[in-house]
Amino acid sequence: MNKIFLIIKREYLTRVRNKTFILSTLLTPVFFIALIGATAYFSHNNSDELRIGVYDESGLFVSQLKSNKNIKYSPVPRQVYDSFAARKPVETYNGILYIPLINVDKPTGLRY
């Protein structure tokens, strides 16, 4: 039994004294910390304002949308919506929110 422990001790020390084991033990946590830091930096640094055009046929919701420092909502005419629907992006908007004409009392044809 004593010989087995001597063999295990020798094998363990042979592995631990290896230069690659020491480097990987020290550099792996540093790599993960750097990866998390880079992710946090780039996600926080992306502070571009998104401009969303709102085409509201019903006229009920466009006044309810509140803009903040990251997203700015603005009403758009039918032509801007049609150009987005035809896959021709308009440079001043990042996207279009389309709200169809609906009967609030009896909504039909809503898709989720």
Description:
The chain is α/β, with parallel strands linked by helices and 112 residues long. The chain has two domains: 2-45, no CATH class; 50-99. It has three helices and three strands, in the order H-H-E-E-H-E. It has helices spanning 2-16, 19-45, 78-85; strands at residues 50-56, 71-75, 95-99. The chain has a three-stranded parallel beta sheet with strand order 2-1-3, covered by helices on one side.
Number of helices: 3
Low-pLDDT runs: none
Strand order of the largest sheet: 2-1-3
Q: What is the total tally of β strands?
A: 3
Largest sheet: 3 strands, parallel
Q: Rg to the nearest angstrom?
A: 30 Å
Mean pLDDT equals 82
Coarse structural class: alpha/beta
- Structural domain tally: 2
Q: Helix-strand pattern, N to C?
A: HHEEHE
Inertia-based shape: elongated
Proportion of beta-strand residues? 15-25%
Distance between the termini: 69 Å
**Helical residue percent band:** 40-55%
